[in-house]
Amino acid sequence: MQLILFDVFNGLITGAFYALMALGLSLILNLSGVINFAHGGFLALGAYLSYTIMPYTGFFGALLVAPVLTAMFGLVIERFLIRPLYGRDPLYSLLLTFGLAYIFEDGSRYIWGAQSVPYQVPAYLSSPLSTEFFFLTGYRVFMVVLVALAVGALFYVLTYTRLGMRIRAGTRDLETVSTLGVNVRILRNLNFGLGIYMAGLAGALAAGLLGLQPTIGTSLLMPSFVAIIVGGLGSLPGTLLGGLLIGVASGLTTVILPSASEAIMYVMMGLVLLIRPRGLMGEEGRVH
Amino acid sequence: MSGNSKLNIRRRNLLQGGLVLGASQIASPFIMTARAEDTIKIGWDNPLTGTYAAPGKNELIGAKLALEEINAKGGIAGRKVEIIVEDSTSGDAGTAVQKARKLIDKDKVNFLIGNVNSALAIAMAQVSNEKGILHIVPGGHSDTMTGATCHWNVFRVCNTTQMEANAIAPTLIKTYGKKWYYITPDYAFGHALQSGMEKACTALGGTKIGGDLTPLGTTDFSSYLIKAQSANPDVIIFLVQGDDMVNALKQAVQFGLDKKVHLAGAQQELENLKGLPPEARVGNWVMEWYFDQPNVPHVADFNAKVVKASGYVPTSRTWFGYVGIWTCALAAAGAKSIDAAKMAKALQDFHLPPEIALCPDGAFYRAGQNQLISNLYVGKARVKGVKGPDDLFEVTSVVKGADVAGTLEESGCKMTWPA
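Above: the input entities. Below: the structure tokens describing the complete assembly.
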């Protein structure tokens, strides 16, 4: 029983992380209709930038600066590569970001090498907080708090700021938003940057938890897509819920059938698609 | 897409995207070196991407060094040698086989080299045997390759998993305890290594109290570690490799498991230790070759050449690649032919010259099994390098390969030669 409890908590921690990545992915998908396969690449970029600037800025400085740099890079990518593809079949942007994902991975390999690099978090964060609940390390708690803050800030921005309201409105009806005088190009650009900021932050956090290697983003991409589908396409709270559910389900499956711990999220996805095709919190008719 | 009241992305698009992502695993890029018709061609079918990219690239560094040396000495059979490089991926046997067939059928290579991943190496061996090509496996450890499924044309440089298990098991049992819990990668290599460890552990009075098979490429090991700790073992045996090893050890140390139980395993690689933060460089392991061998002739020269070529000291993988390519040249020289069967015969009980063997007790391909028998280096990980930043392993004993290899009969290899 204790083991199951451990795994539920641990799954929530892992799930919070999936959710952070999936939220960025979902933001971009909802407003711009771009299935960003390069999201894992941006995550890796955030992680490697954080590793590179850490000697100059320290751990917390890197955590602040690296996601911003990643987002700025995202703004440039959106402006010059993705923007020309709006209005075309989604397959175009899918193929573009798919190619970008390869370029990011091989680029990381070229610049930082094929083998993992030692990413160090401060010593006081890298040990368990209690002997009994050893899986609650200082870093994991810090990560969950930071994810909660980031998610809270995102929802605040979307709910109470002019930019957020425009993004939400654009998600529902971009044409009308455009007609009302909102510069849709800038809106999409900023929204893309916001999504990539989440990826960069997820990367900087992931590097402290996992090994930092060129494939770090690729391996976390699929759970994020699954989180979006399970939670409901078009719904950010749904994406958050999807990420958490996947984390818990994966953790619990490890207790019972470890070899199925990865497959379980696809089983969940299959079940959701069969029983409630719009996802757990997706609105009916939002997606066709 | 602009300005619709509904998203033009269909769920189907997202699912199709997922399928494309899956399919991409077999569509990796390849690199070719310049070629000429009269050269001897060596087909390199090894990982350049994925979880085994780092060991794969280091094997290639060793291979290129050997290639330079061979060409400087006149090549093979008086012909220049070139390597045609293909990315096998780290875990897709279909891609590895497809590339092996392409190298043999289209590029007409004289030798085939690969793979780091045992499952891929075994699949490639079926092809090389069918085509009658001399095939060197630099770094795939699963026992069956030079055991139950051995082939006359397939030679292996790295050790068998049983050799690694036999080398480390006595230290772990005597020093740290008899109750072992395994965290094992779920494919041919992991299964073979765990089986070898269990056999060695049982023979010394130890027991397995639990274990988990983890999918190759696992990033989050936290659930497995929670389970392992709750089983209260004396030793958690990490048999995962590559990036998986880095992820697993990093998380185990974050959980403070290194202060509760002993963390160890069979095979460790310098690539992994370098990728870990200092506090996670813990445990007892086996290295299959180590660069710090001041009393072994030629090692210093080899180290200097590799540092010059790559900027880093050689690892076991660099040595595997180096020996792999040199084996091709030595086989041809021994047979005075590039006929695969004649070269394979020439390699039976063939002793590598000391400047290639680079280990204290020499190295030879055991006849009837085609397994290289060299030394194994048992020791423990170091937090910080002593003789330079890369000296992250303290060798506590050097084991003779012959002492841990078992007999030819025990290997299960029944070699069938072509008529």
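Note for the figure: Residues 1-7, 25-36 of chain B have pLDDT under 50 and may be disordered.
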